[in-house]
Amino acid sequence: xxxxxxxxxxxxxxxxxxxxxxxxxxxxxxxxxxxxxxxxxxxxxxxxxxxxxxxxxxxxxxxxxxxxxxxxxxxxxxxxxxxxxxxxxxxxxxxxxxxxxxxxxxxxxxxxxxxxxxxxxxxxxxxxxxxxxxxxxxxxxxxxxxxxxxxxxxxxxxxxxxxxxxxxxxxxxxxxxxxxxxxxxxxxxxxxxxxxxxxxxxxxxxxxxxxxxxxxxxxxxxxxxxxxxxxxxxxxxxxxxxxxxxxxxxxxxxxxxxxxxxxxxxxxxxxxxxxxxxxxxxxxxxxxxxxxxxxxxxxxxxxxxxxxxxxxxxxxxxxxxxxxxxxxxxxxxxxxxxxxxxxxxxxxxxxxxxxxxxxxxxxxxxxxxxxxxxxxxxxxxxxxxxxxxxxxxxxxxxxxxxxxxxxxxxxxxxxxxxxxxxxxxxxxxxxxxxxxxxxxxxxxxxxxxxxxxxxxxxxxxxxxxxxxxxxxxxxxxxxxxxxxxxxxxxxxxxxxxxxxxxxxxxxxxxxxxxxxxxxxxxxxxxxxxxxxxxxxxxxxxxxxxxxxxxxxxxxxxxxxxxxxxxxxxxxxxxxxxxxxxxxxxxxxxxxxxxxxxxxxxxxxxxxxxxxxxxxxxxxxxxxxxxxxxxxxxxxxxxxxxxxx
Length: 644
Hints:
Blueprint: H1 4-36, H2 47-58, H3 67-70, H4 80-91, H5 93-119, H6 123-134, E1 138-139, E2 145-146, H7 155-170, H8 174-187, H9 189-204, H10 208-226, H11 241-250, H12 261-280, H13 283-309, H14 313-318, H15 324-344, H16 347-361, H17 369-380, H18 391-422, H19 429-436, H20 441-453, H21 460-479, H22 493-499, E3 506-508, H23 514-519, H24 537-553, H25 576-583, E4 591-596, E5 609-622, E6 625-638
Parallel strand pairs: 3-4
Antiparallel strand pairs: 1-2, 4-6, 5-6
């Protein structure tokens, strides 16, 4: 039997481990949940652009001849391209993309934790992390972009460095903040710019000489632009109507005047939440939140005035509206900061909080943003109706909020069930459901609110259990990417042999990645090539002409030129007349590759070779019900056989 001295000694030995478990386990659980709710996309979205740029750099006479890279007007401004160039030879294309995506998300979470630690402590800190992990991360027109994107782009890295810089500002470490902001600019200047503006406003509110100096720098930049300085001279150049029409058609998120009303209405929810939190937070956090609001407002104003109205080239390319990523990232933090203060403010505060939470639960319906506006107005005008008995209204609103939560959660679970029912067997079900269905949003939102309002903190052993459960699931979602064979680092020998006789571009109809990855060839025309039309007028004109030509042939749908249209052509209707028309062009590709239902489905009289590749699935929504069309058979046409 141990003496009391021995027992005390053992307790002292065990105490540091309990403290470590209590500190590390909740953070580990939050990190695992953060990655779990951001399953790896694979080589999709803008990862195609950035990893394709690496392939072009490593093979300038192959992929590098693609018009997308010959007219590239943006990658030279980022060190990310150099990083990609180093990693692809070392790891291979697919592994390099995954490593970059995982590194970006991990760095993002670390920076978020550093910032949240400056805003809250204990259970509130964990709640803030859960809110950011669970919230919708989209921003800008049509929700095209997201913060902390789980694919290989420089944006998550730049965002992470900006968040780290803001954490350093709250810690009064100005030079550290400047270093982080410079690192952000090295990765993505457009994403870093609002971070610089927030820092400038934050420090300028304490020392107006900083603002005066900034105005002087701005005036100097304007003079340099008028004098024709490199890059800055684009501020005086106008985007002509032909170029603007192509940009507006292909990248409808560039100009604010093209955004739908639903985007602007949804932004009211973020603005109301940020303003409420700024009004309720202590001075350092209040100043930071007001600076974020100011930076977003200035970014939107500059984009509209200089881009939409004056059509200045540099303004359209700088996309100052992307400051909205800060609003999207800070909105969940703002909700977490406002919730306990509103709850303690009596029945008026609880009503405002209930309206605000209901608005976020119903975020899929843009009109629900007005609930957040009402919540803010109600709280700011609470003195006028403090004498009115509101207990019944409070209970009714809480019941309504609970009902909305049940309905939204039920809809998410129904979608998950339907997806599992119809999804192709080759797809990774769990990552797809988490990515599209968002079934974890409502439970995590309510859990975070409970932690904030009741100051409830799960025991370390529970947090450790969550981490142990979530971490393997997150690893599964990152290991099992959707359709991994589509991005495999292989050059199929049968396919290569079919196109070996002639060099030159390959037109792979309705595929953005296959010619680069499988053949090491430039693609003659694809939708992804239009991603950079705002940065290069020659690219815009050539891309539009080629894609318009393919649309006139009936090989691609309108959706190939204009996003957000549902028409898709999975199997182009190849005919001898259309092939002869294409191959007669002076810039015709060497080969044409297109998907077919089967070799027997090809029209008679066409000379082609056939190849069966890794399967992919085209999603169609007929009447709201998902349907997947399998695609794995391809016809390869030699253009030389179709020249008259």
